[in-house]
Amino acid sequence: MTQNKKELAVAALRNGTVIDRVPCGALFQAVRILGIEKMTNNVTIGNNLSSRHLGTKGIIKVADVEFPEDVLNRIALIAPHAKINIIRDYEVVEKRPVALPDEIVGIVRCGNPKCITNNEPMRTRFWVTDRDNVTIRCHYCGHTVKAGDAIID
Amino acid sequence: MNTNSLVSIDDISRDEILDLIERARFFEEHPNHKILDGKVVATLFFEPSTRTRLSFETAVNRLGGRIIGFSDASTTSSSKGETLKDTIKMVSNYVDLIIMRHYLEGAARYATEVTETPVINAGDGANQHPSQTMLDLYSIYKTQGTLENLTITMVGDLKYGRTVHSLLMALRYFNPTFRFVACDELRMPKEYRDFCDANGIRYTEHTEFDAEVLADTDILYMTRVQRERFSDIMEYERVKNLYTLRNDMLEDTKPNLRVLHPLPRVNEIDRDVDDNPKAYYFEQARNGLFARQAIICKALGIDIYKEAES
Ligand SMILES: [Zn+2]
Q1: Rounded to 5 degrees, what angle do the CA atoms A23, A26, A31 make?
Q2: Per the CB < 8 Å rule, is A116 touching B191?
Q3: ipTM of the complex model
Q4: Three-state secondary structure readout of B132-169
Q5: Å between B290 CA and nearest CA of chain A
Q6: Within this chain, do residues A83 and A140 fall inside the same structural domain, yes or no?
């Protein structure tokens, strides 16, 4: 617990959510996926911080928000090893990894220009076909892409 | 949930494939079985495909159903910017079944999500064309008496040819052996080779199309090699005649071998093969009628055998 408090001391959060261990290259995508740009809450974003696990990492702290689990799990697409810390009254009350869902609705745009989803006002839908390599397959046209190369809306 | 639709051959089970073959055989024996009395079927061709449309419309007519629709999207409201969803919802009000072809991939899948009316995919871009696969399977079954344990040699464009990909997927239930014959540029994609590996399906790859590769072949599936598939036009000129079937190549093949081709052909099968009893591509196209009659009745949930007794 003391270790956690030190780590989080940058902008001590009384209540809220810390998303830790985000790969540096995926940090701003994660910010977008979580819709943080539109929030008025107190938000701290750090990048290129040193990490025992990743070398460097990004971190996102949002005050007074606990995201629904399915929203947090969306960032597993680009940050499969991210850790979620739920803070209440300066204490980490919950710490868990993100979990890649089987199905991803919205967020990702299909890379196939001839896909119906790129030509019709509708939500995209992908299936995770390979968890180890985070590969997803378009429910409509069958186009397959590695999540790291996917176009995130 | 729209469950009677047929969007992709991958959606249907081994038993459903065999059931559709049985139904196709029934329709071959009873081609004018009028069981669609009072039914209206829409054929929505957002991209023209005369061959496929005529086959489906003949199937509906022989079953005694009525048809509405269009054969070219430029004459419809979608050319005025109407969404696919709106067109499908509008047509759903009028018909019992929608048969659709679209230039966009995934269009038929999406259509099933916006209507409760069953949808048959008659081709969505380079993606799926399940009635073609069913007629291929029916042709194989008819000529070999089984779908099990066959050696299938696929020749020509194995990279972009959706018919060979769908056929490969559908045959996964029946312990096939594949011979893939193509130039490097049109080689069977890794995705499908991986699929074979993962499912224990035997295959060999060849760049030479000769009598040797045909020695143990039961089904020879020819496809068209198109100039526009090549990034290097010199490569096209080099290979365009290497994957042509000549009559003499069939001399020492197995007596049960049959030559299939999804048609139209250009010059990948010499004309003198047409008179060889092993040539089957014209009958194959005719089988499309029975396969489509079977698919239509299944989509409408009609028990064809029961109706036949009454
Ligand atoms: Zn797609």
Answers
A1: 115
A2: no
A3: 0.89
A4: HHHHHHHHHHHHHCCCCCCEEEEECCCCCCHHHHHHHH
A5: 28
A6: no
Domain B131-285 has CATH 3.90.1150.200: no
Residues 6+ apart with CB under 8 A from B185: B159, B229, B230, B231, B232, B235, B239
Q: How are beta strands A91-97 and A43-51 bridged, if at all?
A: unpaired
Q: How far apart are CA B77 and CA B109, in angstroms?
A: 21
Compute the count of residue pairs across chains A and B with CB atoms less than 8 Å apart: 47
Chain B residues whose C-beta is within 8 A of a chain A C-beta are 83-85, 102-107, 109-110, 124-127, 191
* Residue tagged 């969306």 (tokens): A74
Instruction: List chain A residues with CB under 8 Å of B103.
Output: 114
Residues of A in contact with B191 (CB under 8 A): 144
Name the closest residue on chain B to residue A120, using Cα atoms. B83
CATH number of the domain at A107, please: 2.30.30.20
For chain B, the domains span 9-128+288-309, 131-285
List, for residues B220-235, the tens digit of each pLDDT value: 999 999 888 888 888 8
CATH number at residue A10: 3.30.70.140
C-alpha A153/C-alpha A132 separation (Å) is: 23
Residue of A nearest to B83 (CA): A120
Chain B residue at shortest CA distance from A144: B191
- What is the distance in A from the centroid of ligand 1 to the CA of B105? 7
Q: How many domains does chain A have?
A: 2
Using a cut of 0.90, tell me whether the model's pTM lies above it. no
Written as one letter, the residue type at A88 is: R
Which of the residues A140, A143, A144, A146 would you substitute to probe the B interface, choosing the one with the greatest number of B C-beta atoms within 10 Å? A140
CB-based contact A114 B84, cutoff 8 Å:
no
Task: Say whether B85 and A119 touch across the interface (CB within 8 A).
Answer: no
CATH topology of domain B9-128+288-309: Rossmann fold (3.40.50)
What would the pLDDT profile of B152-205 be if each residue is shown by its tens digit? 999 999 999 889 999 999 999 999 999 999 999 999 999 899 999 999 999 999
For residue range B76-99, what is the model confidence (pLDDT) as tens digits? 666 668 899 999 999 999 999 999
Kindly state whether residues A77 and A15 are assigned to the same domain: yes
